[in-house]
Amino acid sequence: MFRFISLALALALAQLLTAPVGATAQSLQNILQTHQDEVLKPGRRTVSVVLDDLVASGLPQALPFLEAWRDREIVQRTSDGLFFRATGEGASFILRDLDTDVALDGAEQLDMKEARPNGGVRRAIGDALVQFRLSDPDIAKRQSAVEAIARSMEASQLALLVGSIETEADPAMKKVKIRLAGMLGALFADTIAARITAIEGLTGDLSVDVRGALNTVLTSTPQVSMALPEDANIAAVLAIGEDISAVEAYDRLVSADLAPTLILNNDIHTALVANIQGDAVGGVPVAALDTDAARQVAYDTLAADGIVLARVTPDAQAQAVAAHIFYLQYSETNPAITDVARKVLTAIETKVAVNQSIDLGLDALSLASIYFLAAIGLAITFGVMGVINMAHGEFIMMGAYTGFVVQQFVVDYTLSILIALPLAFAITFGAGVAMERLVIRHLYHRPLETLLATFGISIALQQLAKNIFGTQARPLTSPDWLDGALVFNDVVAISYIRIVIFVLALIFLFLILYVLKRTRLGLEVRAVTQNPGMAASMGINPDRINMLTFGLGSGIAGTAGVAIGLYAKVTSEMGADYIVQSFMTVVVGGVGNVWGTLAGASLIGFLQKGIEWLNPSNTLAAQTYMILFIILFIQFRPKGIVALKGRMAAD
Amino acid sequence: MHRSFFAQNPSVLWVIATLAVFTVAVTLLSEVTGVDVISTSFVKTLGKTLCLCLIAIAMDVVWGYCGILSLGHFAFFGIGGYAIGMWLMYARTEVIVIESLAKQPIPATPSEISDAIGNQIFGVVGSSNFPWIWAFADSLILQLLMVILVPSLLALVFGWLAFRSRVTGVYLSILTQAMTLALALYLFQNDSGLRGNNGLSGLQNVPGYGNVSQATISILFFVASAIALGAGYLLFAWIVSGKMGSVVKGIRDNEARVRFLGYHVESYKLFIFTVTAIVAGIAGALYYPQAGIINPGEVAPIASIYLAVWVAIGGRGRLYGAVIGAAFVSLLSSWFTGGGAPNINLGFYVIQWTDWWLVLLGLSFVAITLFFPKGIGGLFDLLVRKQS
Amino acid sequence: MNFKTSAFALTALLGTTAIAAAECADPIKVGVLHSLSGSMAISETTLKDAMELLIENQNAAGGLLGCEIEAVVVDPASDWPLFAEKARELLTVSEVDVIFGSWTSVSRKSALPVLEELNGLMFYPVQYEGEESSRNVFYTGAAPNQQAIPATDFFLEELGVEKFALLGTDYVYPRTTNNILESYLLANGIAAEDIFVNYTPFGQSDWATIVADVVALGADGKQVGVISTINGDANIGFYKELAAAGISADDIPVIAFSVGEEELSGLDTSELVGHLAAWNYFQSAETEANDAWVAEWKAKMGEERVTNDPMEAHYIGFNMWVNAVTEVGTTDVDAVREAMYGQEFPNLTRGTAVMLPNHHLTKPVLIGEITADGQFDIISQTTEVPGDAWTDFLPESAVLISDWKTLGCGMYNTETETCVQLTSNY
User: Fold this and answer.
1) Which other chains touch chain A, taking contact as 3+ CB pairs less than 8 Å apart?
2) Within 13 Å and on the Cβ side, how many CA atoms surround B252?
3) Lowest mean per-residue pLDDT among A397-401, B334-338, B384-388, C252-256
């Protein structure tokens, strides 16, 4: 309603602006002075007062004022209440007179109040500006005009938009305008044929606003009557018990005044209390009213005496519901239009459903790669070496904090990430080697104690990080080129940062496979893990190999930490978030095999997304069920998905 | 029979006697007798510590004697707490609701009472219907039964599945940890019917004893905890000292050999796992009325790891070690984090123990694992050896 | 700083006569029950510092009843049962006269039974879900009608939002708030299918699917808005994912109830610009009292530190308590409680806070847009709204009121005209 008015105002404004100026001697400042409060603190519903007077004035400077207002450049001088346009910051701060556009001296910038239009007002101003900006030479302004239309479609915009298409020079913008005109046509075109053509033109468009336009065409309201009306455009007849429950149906009858109101337990309670006479109500002693049955008897007696309304029996309810027909009626009266719209929308929705599953698949893939990245270091230390490292999560955390610290010194985000990745590897490699030398080396034959010792290291490292960096989450900012998402269509999209994580996971996977299978180090690692004594007698130094392997696993965890910090947050507890999941990833996948870790991560990632999809309002439940599934899975396949066979399989 | 048992285990008598003296001393020095040297809040702390000692000896039996490093025993502890908490909360609210509804002009119907109780308990989490798990909450007897039944059932099913599949060693540890995590996540959900993150609170008020002071209630729970610890100690000492104990220790040292000797290893493990789970549940049921509140955070995996830490510090494979470890570390922990420990000024930096205690604990834990695998209890061995 | 306090003490000593010193046989102790370690330390440590600053200032101004105020600081370590234990210690061992403390609802619920048993007095400074009014607690933070409801009105009125996504972390505050908002929205003609509710665990980081779900809500052509009760760290991932999906505040505005200056500090806010938050206080409020408070705070804590809403709550609560104690000349809990009703103190954001008989304050509601420097641009400020302990938008609590002054009851059923209970729901 309001939008329509503001648009009408804008049209009138346009006419006035094109007419010769000077009809009034009023200045813009004078108009604004009469509406000081509305200019300074406008509301979506009250801003029209200001626009009204701006129209009446017909001043050409009103247009730049509106833009400046929307962009929060209007300030008021406290001393005399005059409004100015302010641009720039600090030294380049300039105040301009609104009528003459002349810059004021810098001394006058003291004590200013900023006008702060909220989002709703900014949208209203944007709507009003649409008309002038659709053909503006500045493409950015055309862009914002088109966006304004897309946010709030109005019948009156159709002609304006269509008019501007022909002169549109930019091909991309032209396409956007045509698409938008199609949506507007579907909603507001003059003839039925034109609307049908427009609707058919939308076939196959997956975007949210097209679906929005079609759904607006197909808006329907629930109705109830004794028989279906002849002339109405019926969307669907509702079956009792399937589309609508009997209780709900009866409620609708009540709200349509077609049936008497139900008497609920609460109403009975109130009525009984109001009608206590002596120590009895309706012949039943008050003390006996402690069951619903007794209360109903008392109430019925009251009803029989005509004191209260009679209860509606279940039979009467059922009869009333059966006697009526419940249906949905389209607001659009022409069935031809709704039929076409229905058909087009159904086709779109099928396509959307397919794309949504693809999108969910991508999300699952991304989650799997995050789990894989978090677990891949463990695939080496736990999977290959068999060392339980509860401080693995803290290596991830150390990597992430390395990224944070590097960003404190290197301002360029791209460069800082490039430095952070190898640096995180180096630092956590060193930490891993130190830990192996100092602690784990002594505990190779006591795996349960490794678990506890590394847990001690884990809580010490976590607290140390808290003492150094504080409990507050620290930012790890990704470079600009990683902002945004790779958009396949309006439904399927994935953020670049997740793609990077996916690629990184792949690189690590192949790197580790290469190291283990194709290098001398890998050969020695496999030899030492299978039989350290035999390996030693072949001239391999098991101490050195263990040290290097553990360092490698830790280093990879640190590098992964940088990536994980980029995508989420850097806190001292981030490692703890991933540790249980990581262990389960390795165990589910099958110990001793990097491919197994990949399989485990995929299983967990896809499973979690699948469960989330079944119950989208509760992420926590999805995680619970996933863990339960994993517990059961391990019970029935203790060696994991990719189980080793033969001698390697022995504990 | 009994004589030989005590003769075999002289430490049992020592522990029971110490416990008895300690209990009597604390009671005499508490607010109840008017001496008031030990404040009510410290009596509660001591009572809670006794419960932690109880679960610690359970942990010692399952880990130190049977070799199963369970990272899930705090789950059973929590379940025990929840089971008793449900009754405490329900019964307390019922008293209030009935009192308030009695002021109405007409008597309340059973459904009105139950709705009002539901609204009082679950209003805070935005619901007013009783979830099915509260079906027995109105009966103390049944909820007490739950304290034993639910942990034992969970332990039986989980243990049966795991031991049957020969899941052992670190795999089993990770699996028990996953079980704890699943339980914690489940309890965190509001839909679980146990008030989500808020948990059950106001548990220190025993329904029907509204007029009894907390000083008295705290002493009652303290004594009950001491008795439970004594009984638990006897039970476990008996279990690990007989023939059964030998088999169990055999399983710890070499499972395959025991199996080849013809013992049904899985049954022994399942028995130990379940019995310790039940004791953990009982410890929890005594602990949380003293703490006053239970919520899912209590069941988080980290709690169970700390349990293992206590036992390791105290010394595995000796029951008194577990008692010492649990009491020592948990009291020390609350002393350090409670600001009781003086800060150390290094001139350029002030060490505040609230910040550095965890670092110290973590590192000392590494040191104990590496250099004193027998823990504090190991010191007693040295003493005994010197004497002989 | 130590030098400063002792200097103040010295002047106080010199300025008072021997009689005044004799009067102060019983020093005045203020308990501070805020977590200094654990997960809540990040938020609560600030409040402990704020309390220390307030007490310092009061002592500099001559103390209270001729005595120095002594702060007794304890650390419940974000461990909920410890709140009960420490509250008992404060009241029975340290024998404090009043406690300022707690942040999360569960920690308050943990301390409540102890406070009621020992007739203590606590000031609770954080916005919360309501549905409670204890005789022994003064709630200086916002009740839902002082934050959530006005914010929703702003969405409905000013931004024309027709479809709501209520996203929250899975715990009691978001649950109850969203319940209240759901019935409020239904009462305001928003259809049930136009309200999408989702709960995520603490520290949630995987937001892609949920953001996609929110975007998909726009498929029926209605303006979508997000009301966020997401807590703490999880916000970072959420806003990052929104930005990655190319959604600006103009497309889908987000209004948050748990994101303030403290949460934004140390975060890159360029992606968040234009999104909203609703509080009763922003550091950017332009009043002399606020300028002075911010300056004092920065002087004590460092230039980069910010002030926030719960700090203002303590500021008002502490000053009101001081005035009430001065009025009755004693720190006796019952006397002070009576004197608290009707206490007035100027807000830092203009207007006056008044303590109501239901133990809540009157407060203005502010809505701010996040700016690039981590502060808020205040775009809307209401007049003072009286806090409502029992919301009018849930059928069970609509009939309840709290009035400790005349009715002497925190949970009074107006339909049956009876007091449901004198203690609280824990």
Assistant:
1) B, C
2) 22
3) B384-388
